[in-house]
Structure formats: structure tokens, C-alpha cells
Write a structure and sequence with these properties.
The complex is a heterotrimer of chains A (about 300), B (about 450) and C (about 160).
Chain A (H helix, E strand, L loop, with lengths): L2 E7 L8 H16 L3 E6 L10 H6 L5 E3 L24 H8 L2 H13 L1 E5 L2 E8 L14 E4 L2 H9 L3 E2 L7 H6 L5 E5 H6 L8 E3 L8 E3 L2 E4 H5 L3 H35 L3 E3 L3 H13 L1 H8 L3 H10 L2
Helix pairs in contact in A: 1-9, 4-12, 5-10, 10-11, 11-12
Chain B lengths: L2 H17 L4 H17 L4 H12 L6 H14 L2 H13 L5 H14 L5 H18 L4 H13 L8 H10 L3 H29 L9 H38 L4 H19 L5 H34 L2 H10 L5 H18 L2 H18 L4 H16 L6 H9 L5 H24 L2 H11 L5
Helix pairs in contact in B: 1-2, 2-13, 3-13, 4-7, 4-12, 4-13, 5-6, 5-11, 6-7, 6-8, 6-10, 7-8, 7-18, 8-10, 8-18, 8-19, 9-16, 10-17, 10-19, 10-20, 11-12, 13-16, 15-16, 15-17, 16-17, 17-19
Chain C lengths: L4 H42 L6 H22 L8 H5 L2 H35 L13 H24 L3
Helix pairs in contact in C: 1-2, 1-5, 2-5, 4-5
Classes of the chains: A alpha/beta (about 300), B mainly alpha (about 450), C mainly alpha (about 160).
The structure holds sodium ion (NA) (2 copies).
The site of one sodium ion (NA) has 6 residues of chain B, from α15.
Pfam family, one (chain B): DctM
Main location (chain B): membrane
Organism (chain B): Marinobacter confluentis
Chain lengths: ~300, ~450, ~160
């Protein structure tokens, strides 16, 4: 009989979301390889809730998942480095980061926890505001923002913004009702939550993007070990294809966001290298510092990431 | 075992456990665990705590106990009495006026509380004995309170709308506003039926002699005004909260917290309820109801997880989606399904299990998710007054244990038909639901 | 029906414990309300950041709900359909009620076990919530584990009381 692996993710299924597409592509590839392996995809949190997935996977309750790795940072604080301001900068550098010592360190934590990476993916994101374009650090002063990730919260608060914590599904309403002046999230979310209806200015990722998030496709080690060599090889090959597909799509996602926002009359700006360096300075005194203090090899992780060309 | 067979087993097992008297929350949880053990092994037990905690510890759900606390603060203070007395004096002289004013009181209380059983309890404690004293048939007295109470989840705030909003990632503020006008419309339908029922039974007037009535009026104009003045601050708080929700100041959990705080404060200040006794009563009532509801929500979520894990959910959703029928036939089938589910389960449990499955189907068939939330809510309101599980029926039984269940059911049935009529009206005129949210919040972003 | 001896003592002990945790639950519900009010004040009146309030409120409320549940069981507040057992009498009724109680008890014991295990993991591996406030997770799980355990014990007391 065929082996069926259960794959869970939080993104909408069958609607062209790039992370859903990666997993669906892997399902098709594995099926085509005809090695007695099938991937059963549960999209949109229809099996596990977003934050439950990591725990379920490392224990083998769930075979595979595609998730923002930072969601597991409560259990492995090292993972906060995968949603740290200014560690990635742009898609080309994200590619180089994938084969760096930094990612070796992160993947060691993943492996030790009982999982392995099948496909890497770094998503870019930006800032949007209905008050003032967010470029240099002083532009966030007095704005109430909702950031995706604690390290960003800390950096923005240090720069003088007010932070409001809420689930991402509330961003639209909160912007509409004035609870928020701006938000910071992935390019995909900006479009799918129709944030362009509520803002006057978008800071697109461009060449100097502060916001990047690592969202790999993972498999539980115990599920991996239960596969025969043929199946493992097929899955690895499928993961490779998914990764290549993602690289091709990643920049397109950012462009799509820029196009949609422009079509809706939103001003689109980029950060200059000077803006980027100024933010990096603030991050170093806030989020990086906290990370280095609280995580055993935190400083080493940051150094390793920044060392990448 | 294929999903269809296991689905049938799960439903039968649940019905058996409920029939022998297992509390619904525990029955849902036990079946879910049993199904997970059979599917994935006893090892699932190790993760059960994490799964349960993940479902109960959510900031969205925080609004539920707080809206219940807000209602309890009002119900345990003499506000209910004041509200009731004022309405009685305005309406009491019409034929059936007392029953109509009970429905009015239910509607107003519904705007102060997020829960239907709490609404029935708050107005019923006063209303049922009073109506029976004045010669109303038991069926009308019980029926109008049971049905009037169901408005608690349609007129905002609403516990079930919160659960729907979280399950489907729709805006809770918008859901609340969508329920307001249909809620008033349904209250109107209830009143019309009550008038007809009273006419059919020979009309009901205040039986006191004319002289006594005249004396009462004189004495009561003052009392009435005072009562109104005392109710007013509570109504202002609620108006303020609703305004905050759609006018751009707060999220539902924030509005609920502030509302609970203010109503608790008003109960203490306006009614001087600072002694331990009344505060105890308020907290006890709020705790009892919110614990009951939250436990059902958490176990229903685990039940839904088990159904998804066994691929039952996906199979059912696929079957509905593949029906290829006219969208209104589809809507009819969905309503029938909800009606049957509502016979056996409390509204929150049905929403937790059904809303995530139904929403994609609803959207694919080009129905508005906010409009559907109102249809779903009215449908589940019917479930509140139908056996075997009718939360409002249990409340009426508690207030007036001597009224035969048969009389309660016969008295409630016409109101259930009013709700069916309301669903039909809203299907023909969806603008009744959508007009106010569109006006206040702009077009829907779904 | 009042019971003597060890069993009676256990029932009375549980009744007292359930009432005590109900007070605690009420206090936590109120504390949850206060922290929301605090958040609204800080965010809208002071215009400052709100870091800990949403999580704190969530944890206070989940603790309140679980610590309140033994009292709700004791006072018959968990909704059940009793039409069938009520229609019976004598031994069949007793057996049916016993069966229903044992199912409920089994669920509560499973929940207690799962919650204690989760508590143990969170404590032993120093799990945190992974947010900007990032508190340790175990203090949020502990009341849930205690509440579920007391709920199981209260269930035993209800069965022993003979009115399950
Ligand atoms: Na209400
Ligand atoms: Na029912």
C-alpha cells in the first residue's frame, strides 16, 4: 500500500498562495515519481492551528508542514534569528544565506529538535502606513504600528513607535478604524488582506528590505526515517523543485504587491541604503542585543548572518 | 475505515453519550479522544493538554466571558426589573400588551448581553410569573420568553457571532452590526405573532379594575421615570460600546472588557450593590455561564480536529461542493443541515464545527459571509427552543418547573416558524442584513 | 443524602475546594477585565505601546475558565440532556447515570493527564510564548492542569455522592 504523509499549513489552499503552491507541487512531483508515496495536504489550518504545527511535527503527529519558523521561537529561541530585522536585505542575499554557516546553525537546531528541511523559502515584506511613508527611523515616531514578530516590535518601539499586538486577521479593521496607523508584514499578506484600501504609502522591499521571514517546508525526522530510500530521494527531488519554483516566484510576489498598491493609488517608496543602515543601528541596540543576551549562541548567529556577502 | 463509515460511527456514538446524560462538553471531548486513539494511537493523550490549551487560550475568545459578565452585571442588578416595569406601564393596557412588552424587554436586554439563555433568564424570572398571574396561557408566557431570549445572540453583542468571526476570520464588529436590523425585525415578527395568539385566545388586558388602574398610573408615572433614569446609563454604555466597535475605537475583546468594567461599576454605583452578596451573584452567574460555553467551544474544537484528522470534514465538504445544484437549493440544504444539528447541539458547538466547512462553499456559491452569519444565527436560534438540547427551554424549565414541557414546546413552535419566515425574508431581501454594515463600515472586504 | 466517614469527608473536602477555586476563578475573570481596561487606557489615552496585556488577559481568562469548572460541575451547570435517564427509575436509571458519569470522568482524567504533561514539558524545556513579551509558558498551563485535576476529583465526589 502507499505511504500517505499528512502535510499541514496555515495558508489558503488552491488560491495561488506561493507556500501552498510549493507543497502542492511537491505532492504532484512525488506522485509522478511513482514510489508508493502520497502527500495529503491540509491547507488553511484545517488540521492543526498555525502555532500547533511545529510541536505536532517534531513529535511525528504531523508528517510535514510549511510554516514561519519563528512560530516555534518560544521553544527554540534561536529561530527568532529567522525573523530579525536587517539580517537578509534582499532575495539574492537570501540565496547566499541558504548555503551559509548561519543556516547550518539554524538547521542544526531544527535537526536536533526532530525535523529536517526539504525546501528553503525566504519571504520579503514591507511597511505600510496611512500617516507617513516609513523610510528612516524617525518616520515611525508617533505612529501606532502592528509588526510581524517580536524582534520588529522591539526595534520599532525603540525608534519611537507605539506597538499594538493583534492577530494579522485584525489588521484591516484596525487600520480602517484608526486603531493602527501602519503595519509591517509579508508582501503576500499585504495583498491578500487588501491593506492597499487602507493606506496611503507602501515601503516595498526593493534592494534594502528590513523584513524577511524564513518559511521552510519541513518533515518530521520519524516520518523521514519511515520512508524507504527511493521515497526519500523522490521527496528530496520534489523539495528541490519546490525551492526552485519559490526562487522564481519570490521577486514576483513583491512586484505584484507594488503593482496592486500602485493601481489603488498608493504611493510606493523604497528604503535607501542610508535608511537601511540607520535601522540596522537601532536593531543592533535593541532586538539584536536582546537576542544575544537571551539566546546562548545568539551573538554567533547574528555574526554568522551578517558575515554573508 | 473510510471517512463516511467513521463519520457515521462518530455521530452515533455522540448521540448515545448525549442520550444517556453525559454533559455535552465532555461527550464531545470523549468522542474526539476516542476517535483520535483509534486513528492515531493512544499516544495522542500526551498531546491532549497542548491541543486543549491551544483552543481555549485565544485572545479572541476572551470577549465571550466578558460580554457574559457585562450581561450578568445588568441582570443581577434591578435593571431587569426597572426595564420590565417601564415597558409594562407603556404597553400593559394593550391586548397582549404584557407579552409584547416582555419581547421588547428581551430585545433591550439582548443588546446588553451576548447570550441567549442569559436573556431568557433575566426577563423570564419577572415576566413568566407576572404573565401567569394576569391570566396569560402558560404556552404564551413560556413561548414568548423562550423565543424572545433567543434574540440575545442576534442583537449585538453576540457570543456566537464572536465564534463565527474567529472561525471564519471575518470581522466581528461587522458581524455584530449585521445582526442589529434582522434582530429588530425578528422581534417585530414575534410581537405580531403574540398579538395574534392573544386575540385568538380572547385577548388579554390588565385585569385590575379601572379605579385601581388609575391610581396605579398616578403613582407609577414617577416610579416609571425613575426606573428609566436608572436603566439609561446601562443603555448608554452599550450604545457607546457598539459605537466603539464600528466607529473605530476598539476591537471586540477591548470593547467587551471595557463594557464589563463599566456595567459592573454602574451596578455598584447606580444600584449601590457594593456589598459582597450582589457582587458574588454577578460573578457567580457570569462564571457559570462562561465556563459552560467556553468548555463546549474548546471540546467542540477538538471534536472538529478529530473529524478533520479522520478526513470526515473534507469528505462532507467535498460532497456538498460537488452537488452542482442551484445556489438556493444549496442554501436550503445547508439550512436543513443546520436545523438538524441545532436540535442536538448548542449554537457555539455547531458554529465551531460547521462554519469553517461551510464558508468556502458559501463564498463559492456567491453568498455574502456576513449575510450567511445572520441566516446561520437565526437558524441556530431555532435550536435554542427545540428539544432535546434547547438551552432556553432549560432556562424556562428552571424558572417555572410546573409548566408542562408540552405546553412550552407548543407555545414556542409558532415562534420557531417566525424565525423560518425571517430566514425566508432575508433570503429575498438580503439588503436588510447588509445595508447597515455597508453604511457604517463601507463595502465588505471579503 | 449526607455521607459519613472517609467518603463523606472527601465529598465535603472537594465541595470546599471547588468553591475556593471558584472564588479564585472569579477573581481571575475580574483581573482579566482590568488588564483589558488597562490596555485600552494605555493604548488610546496615553498613546503608548501595549506589550503584555493581550497575552496576560488570555492566560488569566483560560485559568479562570478551568479553575471555575469544578464548581460548575458541582452545581450542575454543564449542560446535559437528561430526558432519557429522568424517564427511567431504579437500577436502569442508576446504571445509565453511572455510565454517563464515567465517560465524563474519563474525559476529565485524560484532560488532567494531558495538561500536566504539557505543563511538565513547558517547565522542563523552558518554553516561552515566543512573543515580544515572551513570558514562560508554564505559569499559564499550571492553573489549567490544576483545574482539570480538581474537575476529575469533583467528578469522583459527584459519583460517590450518589447523584451523578
Ligand atoms: Na446580544
Ligand atoms: Na435544540
Amino acid at each position: 500500500a502507499d505511504t500517505t504523509l499528512r502535510v499541514s499549513h496555515q495558508f489558503p489552499g488552491g488560491k495561488g498562495d506561493v507556500r501552498d503552491e510549493m507543497v502542492q507541487l511537491m505532492a504532484r512531483e512525488v506522485k509522478a515519481a511513482d514510489v508508493g508515496l502520497e502527500l495529503q495536504v491540509y491547507p488553511g489550518q484545517s488540521l492543526f492551528k498555525a502555532k500547533e504545527q511545529w510541536g505536532a511535527m517534531v513529535r511525528g503527529r504531523l508528517d510535514m508542514t510549511a510554516l514561519p519558523l519563528d512560530y516555534a521561537s518560544g521553544r527554540h529561541p534561536e529561530f527568532s534569528a529567522t525573523l530579525m530585522p536587517g539580517l537578509v536585505r534582499n532575495h539574492e542575499r537570501a540565496q547566499r544565506l541558504n548555503d551559509s554557516e548561519f543556516m547550518d546553525m539554524i538547521k542544526k537546531v531544527i535537526n536536533d529538535a526532530g525535523a529536517r528541511v526539504l525546501a528553503d523559502a525566504w519571504l520579503a515584506g514591507g511597511f505600510a502606513s496611512n500617516k507617513q511613508c516609513i523610510t528612516s527611523p524617525d518616520t515611525v515616531q508617533g505612529q501606532t504600528l502592528r509588526a510581524a514578530g517580536p524582534a520588529f516590535d522591539e526595534m520599532l518601539a525603540t525608534a519611537g513607535a507605539s506597538i499594538a499586538s493583534m492577530p494579522s486577521s485584525e489588521i484591516y479593521t484596525a487600520m480602517q478604524t484608526g486603531v493602527l496607523d501602519g503595519a509591517n508584514t509579508s508582501s503576500g499578506s499585504f495583498v491578500s488582506y487588501r491593506i492597499y484600501e487602507q493606506v496611503t504609502c507602501l515601503t516595498a522591499p526593493g534592494a534594502n528590505a528590513l523584513w524577511f521571514m524564513y518559511e521552510p517546508v519541513l518533515i518530521s525526522e520519524s516520518s523521514w526515517n519511515s520512508l524507504n530510500e527511493e521515497q526519500q530521494a523522490a521527496l528530496m527531488a520534489a523539495g528541490q523543485k519546490a525551492e526552485e519554483y519559490f526562487v522564481k516566484e519570490a521577486a514576483g510576489l513583491d512586484q505584484k504587491m507594488v503593482d496592486v498598491f500602485k493601481e489603488n493609488g498608493v504611493e510606493v517608496v523604497n528604503m535607501t541604503p542610508e535608511n537601511y543602515e540607520a535601522w540596522l543601528k537601532i536593531a543592533q541596540d535593541s532586538a539584536y542585543k536582546t537576542f544575544a543576551e537571551n539566546v546562548p549562541n545568539g551573538q554567533a548567529l547574528i555574526d554568522a548572518a551578517l558575515a554573508v556577502e | 475505515m473510510d471517512p463516511v463509515t467513521s463519520g457515521i460511527f462518530v455521530v452515533i456514538a455522540l448521540l448515545i453519550l448525549m442520550a444517556i446524560g453525559t454533559p455535552i462538553a465532555f461527550a464531545l471531548g470523549a468522542i474526539a479522544l476516542g476517535a483520535l486513539f483509534l486513528d492515531r494511537g493512544v499516544g495522542e493523550l500526551v498531546y491532549f493538554g497542548e491541543t486543549f490549551f491551544g483552543h481555549i487560550a485565544s485572545f479572541g475568545f476572551v470577549a465571550i466571558p466578558m460580554f457574559i459578565l457585562m450581561g450578568a452585571a445588568v441582570a443581577s442588578s434591578p435593571t431587569g426589573r426597572d426595564l420590565y416595569r417601564s415597558l409594562d406601564l407603556w404597553m400593559g393596557k394593550l391586548p397582549g400588551g404584557l407579552a409584547i412588552s416582555n419581547i421588547g424587554a428581551c430585545s433591550i436586554f439582548a443588546a446588553l448581553s451576548g447570550s441567549s439563555p442569559a436573556t431568557s433568564a433575566a426577563i423570564g424570572k419577572l415576566g413568566i410569573p407576572e404573565m401567569r398571574k394576569r391570566g396569560y396561557p402558560d404556552g404564551v408566557a413560556a413561548g414568548c420568553i423562550a423565543a424572545g431570549g433567543t434574540l440575545g445572540i442576534l442583537i449585538p453583542p453576540s457570543v456566537t457571532m464572536i465564534v463565527y468571526g474567529i472561525s471564519t476570520e471575518t470581522s466581528i464588529g461587522r458581524l455584530f452590526i449585521a445582526g442589529a436590523i434582522p434582530g429588530l425585525m425578528l422581534a417585530g415578527l414575534f410581537m405580531v405573532w403574540t398579538l395574534i395568539a392573544c386575540k385568538m385566545a380572547g385577548g388579554y388586558n390588565t385585569p385590575s379594575p379601572v379605579a385601581e388602574a388609575a391610581a396605579q398610573i398616578k403613582e407609577n408615572v414617577e416610579g416609571n421615570l425613575k426606573a428609566l433614569v436608572r436603566v439609561l446609563p446601562f443603555l448608554l454604555v452599550v450604545m457607546g460600546i457598539l459605537f466603539a466597535l464600528y466607529g473605530g475605537v476598539a476591537t471586540p475583546s477591548e470593547a467587551a472588557g471595557v463594557g464589563a468594567f463599566l456595567c459592573l461599576g454602574l451596578a455598584i454605583v447606580v444600584y449601590r450593590m457594593w456589598q459582597a452578596g450582589p457582587i458574588n451573584t454577578i460573578m457567580r452567574d457570569a462564571l457559570r455561564e462562561s465556563v459552560m460555553i467556553m468548555l463546549i467551544i474548546a471540546t467542540a474544537e477538538i471534536f472538529a480536529f478529530a473529524l478533520s484528522s479522520l478526513f470526515i470534514t473534507q469528505t462532507v465538504a467535498g460532497a456538498i461542493a460537488d452537488l452542482e445544484v442551484n445556489r438556493w437549493v444549496l442554501m436550503g440544504i445547508i439550512n436543513l443541515f443546520l436545523l438538524v444539528a441545532g436540535f442536538f447541539l448548542p449554537p457555539v458547538a455547531v458554529i465551531v464545527m460547521a462554519a469553517p466547512i461551510l464558508l468556502p462553499i458559501i463564498l463559492a456559491a456567491n453568498f455574502d459571509p456576513y449575510w450567511f452569519a445572520v441566516i446561520l444565527t437565526i437558524n441556530l436560534e431555532i435550536g435554542l427552543i427545540t428539544p432535546p438540547v434547547g438551552l432556553n427551554l432549560f432556562i424556562i424549565k428552571g424558572i417555572a418547573p410546573d409548566i408542562a414541557l408540552r405546553d412550552i414546546l407548543l407555545g414556542s413552535l409558532p415562534y420557531a416558524l417566525c424565525m423560518v419566515l425571517a430566514i425566508i425574508i432575508l433570503c429575498v431581501f438580503p439588503e436588510i442584513v447588509l445595508w447597515l454594515p455597508d453604511l457604517l463600515m463601507g463595502p465588505s472586504t471579503y | 443524602m449526607s455521607q459519613r466517614g472517609l467518603i463523606g469527608g472527601f465529598i465535603r473536602l472537594m465541595d470546599t475546594a471547588s468553591i475556593a477555586t471558584a472564588y479564585l476563578a472569579g477573581a481571575l475573570l475580574f483581573i482579566g477585565v482590568l488588564s483589558v481596561v488597562h490596555m485600552v487606557f494605555v493604548r488610546y489615552v496615553m498613546g503608548e505601546s501595549t506589550i503584555w496585556q493581550t497575552e496576560f488577559t488570555t492566560f488569566a481568562i483560560s485559568a479562570s475558565m478551568l479553575l471555575g469548572t469544578p464548581y460548575v460541575l458541582k452545581t450542575g451547570g454543564h449542560v446535559a440532556v437528561t430526558v432519557l435517564p429522568d424517564a427511567l427509575s431504579g437500577l436502569p436509571k442508576f446504571l445509565m447515570q453511572l455510565a454517563a458519569s464515567l465517560v465524563g470522568l474519563a474525559f476529565c482524567i485524560a484532560l488532567s493527564f494531558g495538561s500536566w504533561y504539557y505543563f511538565y514539558e513547558a517547565y522542563a524545556f523552558e518554553w516561552t510564548s515566543g512573543t515580544v513579551w515572551n513570558p514562560p509558558l508554564w505559569p499559564a498551563i499550571l492553573p489549567v492542569a490544576i483545574g482539570a485535576t480538581l474537575l476529575s476529583l469533583q467528578y469522583v465526589a459527584e459519583i460517590l455522592r450518589g447523584e451523578p
